[in-house]
Amino acid sequence: MHTPDLTHVDAPPAGYDIERIRADFPILERRVHGLPLVYLDNAASSQKPYPVIQAVDSYYREIHANVHRGAHELSIRATEAYEGARSVIADHIGAESADELVFVRGTTEAINLVAGTWGAAHLAEGDEILLTKMEHHSNLVPWQILASRAGATVRYVDVAPDGSLVMEDYDRLLSDRTCLVAVTHVSNTLGVVNPVAEIARKAREAGAVCLVDGAQAVPHMPVDVQALGCDFYAFSGHKMLAPTGIGALWGRREVLEHMPPWQGGGEMISEVRLDGFKAAPIPHKFEAGTPNISGAIGFAEAVRYLRRVGLDAIHAWEADLTRYAMDRLSVIDDLDIYGPRDDRVGVISFRYADIHAHDLATILDQKGVAIRAGHHCNQPLMEHLGVDATARASLYLYNTRSEVDALVDALGLAAKLFGVA
Length: 421
What we know:
Structural class: alpha/beta
Shape: globular
Low-confidence stretches: 1-10
CATH superfamily of the domain at 18-32 and 310-418: Aspartate Aminotransferase, domain 1
Strand content: 15-25%
Strand order of the largest sheet: 4-10-9-8-7-5-6
CATH architecture of the domain at 18-32 and 310-418: Alpha-Beta Complex
CATH topology of the domain at 18-32 and 310-418: Aspartate Aminotransferase, domain 1
Helix content: 25-40%
Number of helices: 14
Largest sheet: 7 strands, mixed
């Protein structure tokens, strides 16, 4: 293993107070196996800052009640907080109206909602769905299920050796038979940022609807759904400092209004009779039952936290940290990194000699370093890459260069244990 001549001193962009940010995350004070926690599994789920934890705690301590259903003080305040959260999150992604944002459990449920409503109402035998070979299972399996039921065909855009989409393949596959294009904004394995605005524009010109999986994008960069030009945008709260079990689906008003309800029950109706029902206006017609009120409130507080730090500042910090990590990892003999060298987010998947990813992750854990190992819900992509699994280190706003150094040092231990030259 060769160590490059790089400084080990954290050098944040001007005004980026990394120590203050880290102090906001209580779990970063933990020790694992007697060593400081180095949390590099952010693409799976991020840690939570005090303001988010306190917002959820305050909701349950002070205003918990069901929303939209009571005339008493607690219900009124809970409803105001819940709908206020919707407005905060909708504004964060550039939605024209909070009514265009549907609360769901996460990206997976958002995509299944679209497949089960828009897809079921619009797809027919002979139609085509266009995906890519880098899609997360949550943006692949729902469309396979839908295609099987409708008699439609799923086609896949190829991935180039550098991890980018083969746009010539996209142009070739997109046709008047294409009803829907679904694509990830940022690959959870390759770290590549896809040209979703171009993809959405071409889909619209072909008469197709475009859905974007934004789970790995919204936490790390400014996103404006109007500028992207897509029809649906799905993302999760837990990957961007919010609680688990909460996410959002944004959809164009004219598309959402013509979609049938997804689940039946309370809240999604405006009128019910024995001979039928009338659905509530958007977004409520897609939110049957008691929602995750505390999750929505925590989600909004996470957005406020990110905006206080600044998405541009976070993006700059992560870009610098990613370059540093790529520089340190790329000079290790027999370590192969997947995805582009530059123009990527801080999701770094790699294989190290003949050490299995799970063994590697276990050794790193003994040094307090938490990474991901496996297929990352990307089995078709793994097959395309010719591997069964990779190790994945993923960075976020609270990570540091010294933590990258800890990763590299732990890889050195793995090399010694497995006899890697």
